[in-house]
Amino acid sequence: MTKNRTDIKTNLKARIDQALGRVDADLVIRAVRMLNVATGEVERTDIAICGDKIVGTYDDNYRGRREIDGSDLFAVPGFIDTHVHPESSLVQPGEFDRLALSRGTTTAIADPHEISNVLGIAGLRYFLEAAEGTAMDLRINLSSCVPASALETSGARLDADDLVSLRDHPKVIGLAEFMNFPGVLAKDEAVLDKLAAFDGWHIDGHSPLLGGRPLNAYLACGVRNCHEVTHRDEALEKIRKGMQVLIRDGSVTRDVEALADLIDMTRSPFLAFCTDDRTPLHIAEDGHIDYLIRTAIAKGAPMAATYRTATWSAARGFGLTDRGLLAPGYLADIVLLSDLESCQVAGVIKSGRPVDAETFAGRRLPAPIGYGSIKRAPVDAALFRTPCAGPTGPVIGLVPQKIITEALVLSLPYTGGERHADPGQDVLKVAVLERHGHNGNVGRGFVKGFGITDGAIASSFGHDAHNIIVVGTNDEDMALAVNRLIELQGGFVAVVGGQVRQDLPLPIAGLMSDWPAEDVERRLHALREQLRAMGCHLDEPFVQLAFLPLSMIPHLKITDRGLVDADHHHLITLDGDRVTVG
Amino acid sequence: MTKNRTDIKTNLKARIDQALGRVDADLVIRAVRMLNVATGEVERTDIAICGDKIVGTYDDNYRGRREIDGSDLFAVPGFIDTHVHPESSLVQPGEFDRLALSRGTTTAIADPHEISNVLGIAGLRYFLEAAEGTAMDLRINLSSCVPASALETSGARLDADDLVSLRDHPKVIGLAEFMNFPGVLAKDEAVLDKLAAFDGWHIDGHSPLLGGRPLNAYLACGVRNCHEVTHRDEALEKIRKGMQVLIRDGSVTRDVEALADLIDMTRSPFLAFCTDDRTPLHIAEDGHIDYLIRTAIAKGAPMAATYRTATWSAARGFGLTDRGLLAPGYLADIVLLSDLESCQVAGVIKSGRPVDAETFAGRRLPAPIGYGSIKRAPVDAALFRTPCAGPTGPVIGLVPQKIITEALVLSLPYTGGERHADPGQDVLKVAVLERHGHNGNVGRGFVKGFGITDGAIASSFGHDAHNIIVVGTNDEDMALAVNRLIELQGGFVAVVGGQVRQDLPLPIAGLMSDWPAEDVERRLHALREQLRAMGCHLDEPFVQLAFLPLSMIPHLKITDRGLVDADHHHLITLDGDRVTVG
Prior knowledge:
2 copies of one chain form a homodimer. By secondary structure, chain A is an alpha/beta fold. Helix content of chain A is 27%, strand content 26%. The first copy, chain A, is built from 17 helices and 30 strands. In chain A, strands 1, 2, 3, 4, 5, 14, 15 and 16 form an 8-stranded mixed β-sheet that branches. In chain A, strand 6 (79-84), helix 2 (93-102) and strand 7 (105-110) form a beta-alpha-beta unit. In chain A, helix 3 (113-119) crosses helix 4 and helix 5 (160-166) packs parallel to helix 7. The longest helix of chain A has 17 residues, at 517-533.
């Protein structure tokens, strides 16, 4: 609403004239089969567009200064990703824009939680500036839990006043995923400060497996949705309690198949889609919100309800009343499809303009920030030694395509008072190294499930504090992987037999590349091949790696402070003893 | 959001403790059969309430400092009247509050259009002040079309800047029914000024029978709903074009029976209920939104979808995200019913407090305003003479329970160069007298359908300019009725044979009584009996009378400027000739 009243009146006059057909419309999509998500009907119609708004539907005789022949196409509203950390696409916001908008995602509601954990308010400001320049409508929910927990060391902190200082930015919707639900239940003062500061605003939830009275208490504080739902029963309780369930399908958090049968017209207003964390390779190969739509429909979800969920329901759940429907007065955010059931995107129109290379060339985006964020001197192999009392102890059990882990207890080779990795039973050593220059912490443990038979992989992308995380069969390769990562100032590294075999630099806050998305994709391909050669057949090994430190998610996790019993929110030793948190 | 953060934190802590059952809740409704409008399920549960919020559902073991036994009751969310002119209840806003809230209407979205036409911005301020004191949540949409048209003389004008000056009041939602759609289509500057000033805000529509490209153009300007829909096909086109259809049932605008079969879960988000104009007698005898619910269900509308329409869908269509569902974190606006299907209200809880006499006794409401608003000297019978060219001319045809009229052409008794009323064919003389002290205009015509065989009735309540309107069988009784009305400074009057037989004073702007609602009801009963004795068997003769001057509604109307061809928006003479509007 920065335009003045005179300009708006000029726009209104043009809309009236074009809607009435007194003059040609700016753009007309002729004779397209339009899916109306309000009624579920598909009907052939022209769609007339003036400026950024639709001005005519249900008419077969509009004329445009520019016309698109829609006779072989379907038209649906632009898709909305209701919860995404664009940093997980490993590219700058402008590159995420290019990837996702081309797939039909015309609005994304971003939580710049990753960069905020490294850079604090500077990270939020970077994303707000980017959001003013992207071709898609990038909206921001302010990262509510930085740090996410006291059980790890983040680069920065955001308190209630930091968040309030950005609250009135036109791109801000409200508060992003309030993941510290234990803090809510414990009436933590700093936690309640943030909730109180956003009283009456939109507040995103994050409450995996929470139910019963604890869920009641969490909701009583104004939380409105959850993207961490993995089971149908969990979804039903949450919908009964008024939550909007944001069905997620990220790169390891693959929930759409399990939750697709929730989708119908009755529940649709209480559903939406999100990607949360999706790599650029994954977007390029499988898609973005388009993937969730086609997967849900393939699983039997009713088509019209699925598209309503991806568009209108998503928009309304976040207070976006100007989009989500193809109707006069609504934003001309339109996806053209060659097939409705399989959601094959043939073209995208954002705010009335067909999206093409020129769309992206003309943007004004901020220069990248956050170089030099890996504040750590080179390490040596001895740093990874794991002295403990005996062969048996806790081991993190990876669950492919889930961010939940299992808490295992296994016996491992034990020599010289140290427990060791055991590739024979698919157990690697894992370590998390604080990298923000605060305390040099190192947390050590073991993890089962990577499949790596020899070597090490390291990453500076590790939820949520984004310390360095490394797993390996031996301490020497682990040290080399970490040192290469320090040299790159962030990224992904794969080491075998004392040699760096492949890497991807991520110098922007240790999270994002400053390369074009296609170059990042190519390097991720190469890394995937390298990891397969090392024995790892996970779809997304670096994403699974990145979730190992996420201590807000059950069951056993690891941070720079050590192993975390994520069910009870305390640290444990390699021998399984509880550690009092300072 | 006037509370400070410390107070909010104190609230949040109490909610958390009560939701978890650490302490007793402020109020618990025990073992009630709750209709969940999110899922359509009815399940027995406790509802725990802390302060003004629900903090617990789907639990059978809450304890409260106060408890209500719900075992014989159903619980549903508080009802929302999405479009109402409380002036039509003929009582002060505080009395409307008492009438409607007791019937389960916990939120009403008011357009103080009537008082604004008489008193201008002072009328809006009076309602905003009242809205801060009512027990129900009275929200205000700012009256967008004062005057409603150039075809009549109103007491006041509101321009875009007047409306903008009140836009940020916490009770304001946006712009009320934008009835001047011809002005939109004609790109009238003052009309577009208002739309431009509210660009991006909520804008209520009003577009009876509008369809096709004219509807597209109207919607392209940001209008979002319509309460003037009377036909199913009209509703379907409007829903297809993204409008929310506010199904109305007022005192003469009885649309719920015709539109009930639109209601289902798919369309519910694009529907809501409203009363628009309902007399206190009508509310007392038939009900308020509860009446619409029971009537829709009786006509076959699915129960859960009907309740969703009356609550959640209504709330969301107006950006009210804190209500419309019985779930933790939502406002504790609850209606207790002895029967769900017939919507028998057994109790009402507003913001966590059971509604009783004390609820209303404790309110702080503004003193009435607008006394002395009938600025007109006594008249004599000669004022009503109707010289014209011959016996045949236009006659307004009343349609019982509709505000649309028919445009008839009839032959009437013609003597001395004057046409006369003809009770034999149920045709009366009608006149509208400007009463705001601006020009003393008198418009004259004939109307068929009142049934009055002898005498006259007059009113100072006449949409939208609220000039004096009088109908009668003879000029003498018409003059007496008008003079009594001037003496009362507004109201309803019935005269027979040179005697005032019954009246109701409405001294607040000539629109509202300063009596308690029950006294107004009693007098309305007496007036109804009087009118029946005069031969008039309309359900609501004074409401039908009040709509005769509404020139925005088809087909033939009358204002202080004369007869109006409402289809073509111009004046006509008693001989049917078109008059150029100055």
